[in-house]
Amino acid sequence: MTMIRSTVPVGASFADGSELDWAQSLVPGLVVLDARVPPNAPWSGVVAAGQVLTIVDVGGNQSGDCLMYNAADHDERYSAPDTLTWEQNAYVSTGTVLRSNEGRPLMTVIGNEIDRHDTIGGACGKESNTLRYGHHVMYHHGCRENFLAEASRHGLGVRDLVSNLNWFMNVPVEADGALGIVDGLSAPGRRVAVRAEMDVLVLVSNCPQMNNPCNDFNPTPLRMIVVEPS
Amino acid sequence: MALSVPRDQHTTDTVLNARSDARAQGGQSTEWMPHLPASSSPFAPAGIDPAALVWGEVVAPGGYTHKVVARGTRIRFDDPTGNACATLVVYNALEPVERLNVADTQKIPWQAYLGAGHPLLSGDGRVLASIVADTSGRHDAFCGTSTDMWNERKYGDSRSEGPTPSGRGLLVKAAAKHGLGRRDLPPSISFFQGVRVESDGKLGWQGSAGARTYVELVAELPLLVLVANVAHPLDPRTDYVVGPLHVHAWRGRPTGPADARFGTAPELERAYLNTIDYADARGL
Fold first, then answer.
1. Is residue A23 part of a domain?
2. Of A134, A126, A122, A135, which is closest to residue A179 (Cα–Cα)?
3. What is the ipTM metric for this complex?
4. How far apart are CA B254 and CA B269, in angstroms?
5. Cross-chain Cβ contact B123/A88 below 8 Å
């Protein structure tokens, strides 16, 4: 009997021989969580106030799409526009305070090994992929799917998805307003560290996009390390 | 605001007197109010048959409004003074989980600045509304609107019933009137007050193009429209400066393959195809 297998593209993974640097926490402290997020997969965790989450770009230029929620009140969540307005800057970098839709600090970037991160470009998804690349990509996996799957584990759904942050992704805005995802500024083992300013639920999609350079067309793992700073 | 008639001129000691007193207040006009029927709006756009109007309103500075309009409706915002700031969120009225997605609205057209021809996209690969006319060119899709925390810090007060209401506070109420809560409010956009990204990423204030500009949208799906008319968060003026906002809407038709804007970019054409596909299947 012939075995019929799914023909849904399962998403690319990194090529053999890709350089991987798993690195360590960017700040010293007691490790309370250490997770390896495979290519294409979602992840979530709660970072308690004062703890520091280091995200390691293990293979380089791997977008980590990220949403954050007040762990005690999920109606309060990351707001890209409030973050940009308070910083009066279009990019996320060292010192950026990641703010909620009420304007309150959720997390602060306290360590950072690349020039800037993106919070304009949003997340890929099956439907928006059809606009960007054509209807033939409808069955590709997307970050919106990862977010929905991971959000559902916390009682959250599509109403809770908003404009997100993209660690290690590069979206320049040019003088005439042209903007887009271009080649990244990161490299294997580069890190960003964010300190929780309240108890924060963090959702991450290790971006499975197969059609643009947000993961250098070579999806690699992410490492998530939470420490209680010493 | 002071009472329009002093206490000693009201006779309200019995139900009948109170009724007479209340009824005597009808029929008045003020600078900012909805006009009903919409065809009676004193500010109907030139060239538009007043009988076709379905919405005619002047939104007060610091006020908000909201309406559900049919697919194909043309919606026009006028800034008569140069100080309006129309903060907007739109939803698919049939399934409000489908709503404005500012990230896709900037990313998919490869353009951060809103203007004529720009689609307002949902997160579901469809066009909720198309910007079809724009004489201002000064808009913002980066900063959202003011929160209570922002206005308390900037003006000392954010209350909706106070002199410097926050945009978010008003949008929370507009959404609530359609059964929607805080989790249903995504990032918003603003018309008539511009922001530009400088080479170092700084968000530079551009402000208004001046008095008497307008923006027109076409509703590509049945649309829930929420509007707050509040000072832009990056407005550098220390006073809370905002002018009246005129809103009109009239019956029209959605974008189709015969319209020049349908095929101006491959991303846009597929977005319209997705929208029409949804509308056809739903029998709209």
1. no
2. A122
3. 0.96
4. 14
5. no
Q: Give the C-alpha separation, B259 to B252, whole Å.
A: 13
Q: Which residue has the tokens 């890209």?
A: A80
Q: What is the arithmetic mean of pLDDT over B81-86?
A: 98
Residue A12 domain-assigned?
Answer: no
**CA of A14 vs chain B CAs: smallest distance (Å):** 26
Enumerate long-range contacts of B1-10, CB under 8 Å, 24 or more apart.
B4/B28
Name the token pair of B228: 């707050």
**A145 and chain B: CB distance < 8 Å anywhere?**
no
**Searching chain B, which residue's CA lies closest to the CA of residue A131?**
B267
Q: Flag whether pLDDT at B66 surpasses 90.
A: yes
| Partner residue opposite B104 with nearest CB, options A86, A88, A122 | A122
Mutate to test the interface with A, among B104, B139, B202 (most CBs of A within 10 A): B104
Of B125, B149, B202, the CB nearest to A130: B125
Q: A131, B274: Cβ pair inside 8 Å?
A: yes
- Written as six digits, the tokens of A140 are 């590709």
**Could you list the residue range(s) of the whole structural domain that residue A174 is in?**
29-229
- As a whole number, the mean pLDDT across chain A is 96
Task: Residue window 26-85, chain A: list those with CB within 8 Å of chain B.
Answer: 74-77, 79-82, 84-85
Query: Chain B residues with CB inside 8 Å of A130's CB?
Result: 125, 270, 274
Residue closest to A68 by CA, chosen among A159, A146, A160, A170: A160
Q: Give a yes or no: residue A96 inside a domain.
A: yes
| Domain count within chain A | 1
Measured between beta carbons, the chain A residues lying within 8 angstroms of B202 are 88-90
The CA–CA distances, whole Å, from B138 to B84, B85, B90, B134 equal 11, 10, 19, 9
In the predicted structure, residue B3 carries a pLDDT above the cut 60: no
Residue B56 forms contact with A (CB below 8 Å): no
Average pLDDT over residues A203-211: 95
Which whole-number Å values give the CA distances from A157 to A112, A144, B78, in the listed order?
A: 31, 11, 36
Q: How far is CA B144 from CA A149, A153, B279, in A?
A: 27, 29, 29
The separation between the first and the last C-alpha atoms of chain A, rounded to the nearest angstrom, is 61
Which of A128, A132, A138 to mutate against chain B (most B CBs within 10 Å)? A128
Residue range B89-113, pLDDT digits in tens: 999 999 999 999 999 999 999 999 9
Query: Chain A: residue nearest B122 by CA?
Result: A128
One-letter amino acid at B8 equals D
Whether A20 is covered by a domain: the verdict is: no
pLDDT of residue A213 exceeding 70: yes
